[in-house]
Give the backbone structure.
Amino acid sequence: MALGEFELIRRFFTAQPVKHPSTVLGVGDDCALLRIEQGEDLAATADTMVEGVHFLPDVDPESLGHKLLAVNLSDLAAMGAEPKWATLALTLPRCDEVWLQSFARGFFNLAERYGVELIGGDTTRGPLTITVQALGLVARGRALRRSGALPGDLIYLTGELGAAGLGLRILQGRSAIEDPAAIQRLERPEPRVDIGLKLRGLANSCIDVSDGLAADLWHILEPSGVGATLDWEQLPLADGVRRYLAETGDWRLPLSAGDDYELCFTVPPAKQGELEHRLRSVACPYARIGRIEPQAGLKLLKDGRSIELSRNGYQHFSDD
Amino acid sequence: MALGEFELIRRFFTAQPVKHPSTVLGVGDDCALLRIEQGEDLAATADTMVEGVHFLPDVDPESLGHKLLAVNLSDLAAMGAEPKWATLALTLPRCDEVWLQSFARGFFNLAERYGVELIGGDTTRGPLTITVQALGLVARGRALRRSGALPGDLIYLTGELGAAGLGLRILQGRSAIEDPAAIQRLERPEPRVDIGLKLRGLANSCIDVSDGLAADLWHILEPSGVGATLDWEQLPLADGVRRYLAETGDWRLPLSAGDDYELCFTVPPAKQGELEHRLRSVACPYARIGRIEPQAGLKLLKDGRSIELSRNGYQHFSDD
């Protein structure tokens, strides 16, 4: 790629919708310089997406720009952190202006909604691979961790399960169900930043569900030294997912499919009222889906049976 | 790549040689949590390397691990920032244990020498592409910028020019010169962190030379609104580079070849003594190579002629 092309690419990422006064220096020097106020901790996360692995080659670039930032903001949300900055490392096979314009629009539209300033990154030639690193702030000692779940905690989930997994099956031609909303959930996940902020000082533990509820819930259970029971009847499923389950009987989908980017968190029963009060003003629905147990293991109550969901993602019937 | 393989890959990056007390939370949650003390600004930078573009497919993985971190630390050095943390986004075509062990050794050996803690990242399957983001600290208002050069400033350069460019030509079979030191400079650049720290409050401007001295010096001249004259006789050239120049007459190499990762900085003449005093204890050599001029443009004095080095990297003789 000629130098001129790199300059062109950089031009697509200079029209910043957000400028923080705490950004001492943004794009254009050897580093960005950021000012962190006393009493705030910095939360840092990074996620990579690769063509053919995390998205299909014909993906809408605007959706891709949205999703790359969204999955990083989802990690900040799971810590209860307020998004502030991002860097973008963009490896591109060629300089396609229409593609870049569309990608940048998706990225910056979401960045503007959540107050994220792009402060740097790198542009290189190569197979389409994109890494975003997001930085956010959280008041000292108030971050939500995976490791704080306690026996008796109620387990909650935002939004709905399995829609993104269904969307992927539809795009891959593996399901004939018509469900544009499922494809939308796959391509334009909504980071639950507002809810993450409201959970500070309330939730004992929190994680964002990116690899499937069962796999990610284990990332709460193990460091917390506890187990859990989920109630199938309480799992929030979209209409399309219910139709898919009725047609295929593939009930594992909403538990194992990735890309939901919902928050799963646990709250002690005594704080249930406070939780409902705080989330009243948030548009996103949420559901109580189970309970933390003192003994290790993850169980699903379904149709009068107790199904063990094992750590490596494979499930077997414990009472067969 | 199976989940088990990802776990395996992560295992190579858990043996941290460095742990900062200011790391509230490292690898293992949705985000890392970092504490920044009052009075310090955070410096952030990111660099990507792609197989076949930035390194050859048969590169020694230990050297690659070293270089990826080194080029990011070089950006921190150019700001006068002290390295503290890094994230690593690793996209790999397969899980090769020997390769990973060697890569991790190169990365962590350098990390240990400069006090860098790996706090997170991502591991994905795909064409070999690696992005490192480095975070460092610099006292408020003390960061070195590109934009502060003033007419009369003396221009300095650390180390030597062109060795990495020669090393690349040797590896590509484009030069028959025998020079293992040049290949070493290409594969294991040394970030000039110690010098960057000593330049705080002394240098008016600073940049790290990654795209060739001429191209990078322009990144000081333009935002500073000044020009410069370089003196060919003062450019620090390694023996191998001198032999290459004698054989080929390709005098542009040390000015245009990338990957030097030396610091180029400007200092007012009144502070020359202080500079020499401060750099006395640093093992790395440095040279005065020119002077900042009030009028725009970059000139090279060579063999009694003034050669204009233009902004886009092409050179022409102004007095022809």
Notes: Residues 314-320 of chain A have pLDDT under 50 and may be disordered. Chain A has two domains: 3-139, 154-313.
